Amino acid sequence: MRHPVASALAIALLLAATPVLAQDAAPAEPVEPTPAQAAPAEAGAAVAAGESAADSGSKIPLDEIRRYVAVYSAVKAAYVEPVDDEQLMHSAIRGLLLDLDPHSAYLEGDAAEDFEEQSRGNYDGIGVEIFRQPDGTLRVIAPIDDTPAKRAGVKAGDLIVEIDGKRLTAGDDDESAPLRGEPGTSVELTIVRDGVDEPVHLTVERQTIRIASVRSRMLEPGYGYVRISAFQADTAADFERQLAGLSEEAGGRLRGLVMDLRSNPGGLLTSAVQIADALLEDGGIVSTRGRIAVSDAVFSATPGDRLDGAPVVVLVDAGSASASEVLAGALSDNGRARVVGSRTFGKGSVQTLLPLDNGDSVKLTTARYYTPSGKSIQALGIVPDVVLHADGDAENGGPAPYSEADLPGHLSGDGEDQPGINAGDVLDGDSYIAAALVELKKQVATAKPVPKG
User: Fold this and answer.
1) Is 442 assigned a catalytic role?
2) Which single residue of 85, 243, 416, 451 could bond 379 by disulfide (Cβ 3.0 to 4.6 Å)?
3) Catalytic pick from 24, 101, 145, 333?
4) How far, in Å, CA of 403 to CA of 349, rounded?
5) Residue 313: closest CA among 238, 224, 426, 235
6) Is 322 a catalytic residue?
7) Could you confirm whether 406 is annotated as catalytic?
8) Of 14-23, 271-280, 281-290, 415-424, where does mean pLDDT reach its minimum?
9) Is the whole model's pTM more than 0.70, yes or no?
């Protein structure tokens, strides 16, 4: 695997649409860490030492601290039932992060460990990407391919309001905990679904989720297809192995490739960057900019295109978020691929996992990311070159009920108030792959031949 260049001191970047995706994890085999992999301790230390506050010239707001202590004391003294100090402090910490944006969160010890497990694609649960709304309900970004959630009929956009008959509330802790559990046990979900009058009740059996994040096949002789369902620690290596297999099956070189990122909710930034690098000879891939220098990074491609310039079409939809958007934006801005499908989710912010000395962690939004042309897609998404719409009678697709721009407290995006900025469609089914193949053949027909030898 090649490692693209990251300029400046980079933080460990986490790009995900939900609190249940994991941060950058150590590779299975020891390698020299890149700056992006080596810096989380430094980033955490900088924040813990208050360097960002000092840089900005801010001071501790004593009047507000007095107000907090007064409310704390009132609750301790007069609430109808006794409340212990630990419970009050945890509630205060969760509240501190809750109103920042939809992706910042406090992760207690077990939740932080679960967070890391999912970067390896091996955990016990139902296989669904979610985020918690302010009222405690869980919005589904997407069910992961070939998991119990997908097979049971959970759909992108579903709103989980009850788990095992218990109503979800804003005071609940880690959102994914009730969905995890011993393999073979079941969980009852009560779901509010757009366009359905009555709540939907689903029983989902938990399993050990071993996500095969990359799958591939030949669509026609010479035309390959790669489906990437999530970005995990081994996704980039799997992509290159399967790409090599497709090329061999095609007689040594593919004529073109369809890359399917539909309903891919994101994951590890480094995996998306490495896949972009595998298809680019040069040029930028993605940059991040935040309030402190440690949040700033620029990732650029290194020489070597695994497809030798063969055309690429990237298929996206309203469930394509975060690292998916990074990859689509990098290939599009460099003129390396045509993007086909529907407007993407628009999750253009960077989360950093800051470990605390008690074993807990803070997942904090620290930067926005920008495509090589300098565009931020926060709350806007990627607009495809060729727009596809969901079929009117689509059983598992259709207009998405929400996007990043619809989330309460989301970071503002440049131009998100423009007319016509709204959620795209969820495109489910093989007919969209066929449409992408048609577009790919157009690119092949107009592509310049690659010299041999």
Assistant:
1) no
2) 416
3) 333
4) 14
5) 224
6) yes
7) no
8) 14-23
9) yes
